[in-house]
Structure formats: structure tokens, C-alpha cells
Amino acid sequence: MRLAKPLAAEFIGTFWLVLAGCGSAVLAASFPGVGIGLLGVSLAFGLTVLTMAYAIGHISGCHLNPAVSIGLAVGGRFRWSEVLPYVVAQVAGAIVAALVLFLIANGKPGFSLDGGLAANGFGDHSPGGYSLLAGFTTEVVLTMMFLFIILGSTDDRAPRGFAPIAIGLGLTLIHLLGIPVTNLSVNPARSTGPAMVVGGWAIGQLWLFWVAPIVGAVLGAVVYVALSPALEAVGVEPGLRPAPVEPVLEH
């Protein structure tokens, strides 16, 4: 099966994103005296994408995110026929990672799921008490900008070799902005993993963290395609479009 290896890579990559990203929030953010705090958690999420982009970008494109797969398909960078298998692999990786994280965290006396296992939420479950509207707006806008960064940095005309760095730092930046509002998702799989373990309110609010990132990803793709100049305008003759220089998104 042609997709077997890319799907396995997406599973592993999304597993790493949730385990290391959410794990940094659950295990290390508030560790007495040396906790990494919001800045550290934001950097951890960025580093998961950066490291996996180099590790599996040439295998699967390193989407690690259903919204990214859908946005890339809208932008003409990914086959629509492969979106659903990618989404299934990503969600499965996220759920397994959340279960492993729970197993680790539960090894500390007094651990409780009341902390949310880094699940995303709004209202009473927002870290800063932000409303549903604030959460929805944050997730849409930041996912839109994330897709814009992804499409721009992996464009054939972008500087070669730097896309994983731009994407990883972009994810770090949007976490710095969005963690206080929703714990930041911009990734339905990342939200689904912890929600499946926490249950209750996390499942009840999960819809927002599917709808808003997908809306944002579609908007980001549409805006980038609309703004991106035609290849002819930058000196590339029609019919001579170069092969992608970055393996981060295509396979």
C-alpha cells in the first residue's frame, strides 16, 4: 500500500507533537523552582514540528494536523483523496500520545485529571477565562496565519532549507499568543487526544477545536493562493514549474 509508510510517519509525528507538547505543559510547566512556564511550553510545541519536519518531511510531508492537511488540499499542495487517511492517522497518534502522557502523569501521587491534561477549552475551561467567541476567533485567526506561514515558507520560490525553522517558530509564536485563551489548539488532532482521556467538558467543547482550525486553515490557503504571484511574474516560464524544494508538505 503506497500510503502505509506516510500514514505511519504521520502517526509517529503527531504522537510526538502531543506527547512532547502537551507533556511539557502537564509535567514541566509548573515544576517547583524550575518550571518552564508559558514560554517553555510554546517552544516545546514549536520544536516538535521542527524536529519532525526534518525527520519525516520526506516521508509524509509532516502535516501532523488535520487542519493543515485540509488547508494544503485547498491550496493545491495535497491530494484530496489522501486527506481522510491522514486525518485518521493523526488523530490515532494523538490519542495514543495522550494515553501515554496520562500513564506517566498518573505516576505522581495526587495527580488528577481536573487539570485537564492540557486539553483545550473556553469559558470556565479557558486558562484566562476567555469566552467562546474569543476562543473561536483566536483559533480561526491563528490557524489562518499558521497555514499562511506553511504555504509561504514551502513555496518553490522561498529560500531553500528553512521551511521547518519558519514553521516551528511560527507555531511557537502563535502558542505564546493563544495559550492563555484556549490552551491553543490550531490542530484538531492535538485537541482530540487529551479530550478523549479527560472526557466530560473536554469532549463537550471539542467541536470548537475542529471547526475553528479547519475554517482558519481554509482561509489561510485561500488568502495565500490569492496573494501569491504567478510563476511567470517572477521569471519562471509556463510549463517549467520547478519541483518542490521542501519535502515538508508534499510527498
C-alpha-based Rg, rounded: 18 Å
Helix count from the secondary structure assignment: 9
Termini separation comes to 14 Å
Poorly predicted ranges: 231-251
The CATH superfamily appears as Glycerol uptake facilitator protein
pLDDT averaged over residues: 90
From the spread of the alpha carbons, the general shape counts as: globular
Order of secondary-structure elements: HHHHHHHHH
Task: Please count the beta strands (DSSP E, at least 2 residues each).
Answer: 0
Number of domains: 1
CATH topology: Glycerol uptake facilitator protein
Structural class: mainly alpha
- How big a fraction of the residues is strand? under 5%
What is the CATH first-level class name?
A: Mainly Alpha
Q: Any idea what the CATH architecture is?
A: Up-down Bundle
Question: Helix amount, in percent?
Answer: 55-70%
Summarize the main sheet. none
Question: What's the short version?
Answer:
The protein has 251 residues and is an all-alpha fold.
What this model shows, in words?
The protein is mostly helical. The chain has one domain (4-229): Up-down Bundle (Glycerol uptake facilitator protein). The protein is 63% helix and 0% strand. The protein has nine helices and no strands. α1 packs parallel to α4 (83-105). The radius of gyration is 18 Å and the shape is globular. The two termini are 14 Å apart. Residues 231-251 have low confidence and may be disordered.
What are the key terms here?
mainly alpha, Glycerol uptake facilitator protein, 63% helix, disordered C terminus, 251 residues
Give the topology, please.
Layout lengths: L3 H25 L8 H24 L5 H9 L8 H23 L26 H22 L9 H20 L5 H11 L2 H4 L3 H20 L24
Helix pairs in contact: 1-2, 1-4, 1-7, 2-6, 3-4, 3-9, 4-7, 5-6, 5-9, 7-9
